[in-house]
User: What shape does this take?
Amino acid sequence: MTKPASPAQYAGVKDDRPPGEAPFDQIYDRELDYVWRTLGRFGVPEPDLADAVHEVFLILHRRWSELDHSRPLRRWLFGVARRVAADARAKQRDIPTEIDPAEPVDPLVAQRRLLWSGLVTLDDDRRDVIILHDLEGYTGAEIAEQLEVPVNTVHSRLRLARADLLVAVQRLRGGS
Assistant: This one.
């Protein structure tokens, strides 16, 4: 992964935050990998990831003064990444309906592509929970707090998301 220039540098924006707050470039460096992973997990195609990452950080920079700084930044970044990814997916026209078994691909790359293709078929609520739990490692209670839903709802969505993902992966494999 080539690290893109920070949005502040990219947009030529001066960082004019009050003393004591983390400079934007430090936040960018700390959260870049998280935003990149999250956007990828939301189905943003690899060629579009750098632009989507820039979009998330440009939104963060523009809305910095509106944020509730007492709340975790990653919760906010997750929500923005979700919306940016949804916009990117809406622009995407070639979501695969089947994986071509004849295509020569590294097995790990093929599995990753299959997983991402399956994830984009899930509804947003279920995709959020499975990403946060199975890929990011958050507990049910942490996810419930972040998404502001009951813990039982998280567990229900996770169970349903796993079942839906299995069906999607089987469909993408051609029914096998």
About this structure: The CA atoms of residues 10 and 52 lie 13 Å apart. Confidence is low (pLDDT under 50) at residues 5-13. The helical segments are 7-11, 24-41, 49-63, 73-91, 107-119, 124-135, 140-147, 151-172.
